[in-house]
Amino acid sequence: MKTLTFLRKKSTSILGSINYKTIIAFGTGLSFLTLFSCRAMGDNLGETEAPSHMPPLMGANKCGAFVAPGKWKEFACQNLGATPGKNPFEPIAENHGAKYQWGAFKDESGRYISQDAYQAIPLGSYVPGWEKYTNTLNENTKPDNSWTTSNPCKAELGDGWRVPTKDEWEGVINNNTAAPVKVNGITKGAMYGDKLFLPISSIVSPQGQTGQDLGIGNYWSSTPHKDFAYYTNYHYMAYHLLFANTDNGPVIGILSYVNAANTTRLYGMSIRCIKD
Fold it and tell me: Which of 5, 141, 187, 210 could form a Cys-Cys staple with 236, CB 3.0–4.6 A?
């Protein structure tokens, strides 16, 4: 019988919390590991009870989290492109959603793949037509202003919805208790507070390859980043929320931080929308 386990631990910011070697292991190094990050198709666990309460005045049917002390923001309950109507607190394949390159929109050729299309591709295979890293100056990436006037959240969910910023994801990390959500002892996602569940939902690598389950979650922010990445030739990058289960690591529970190192915009990642 499958079990759903919530281990309630404090999310820990990478800044000032762990040493340089740990940053390499869970920071820039993890950017390489995300090439294989969670495929995790997930099994339907049956109906799982959603948290039974929310803080006052926050709406019993809304999902969200604190993004600053005392500042609670509504998030979409599912990843963008997930199957509507599924219990959003279950770590199942139908909640994984589509994969977007940074700056891309739904159905954009070579930069987007739907949930169903992604999950139909065998592990380690390549997404047909994916815009790949070319080791050239522009790297085939989208420009900094790609999600400035519009973004996939607004395009698909309507006005008032957008991709969270780097600062908002850092606010989620620093102002909510984080806990791994496990199935049969394997981490399949993370809860932030009582009303925001993020499933581990895999990525597409800059070379267009699908991955496998290593217990790592990746979610885009809307904040671009330009720099020379130490371990690669990437220059055009973007910040994303990265979380990992660390039961055997320096932090017990979920280690979360916002990362841009070695994260070219050509990765295909999940998006969880925030509401203004």
Answer: 141
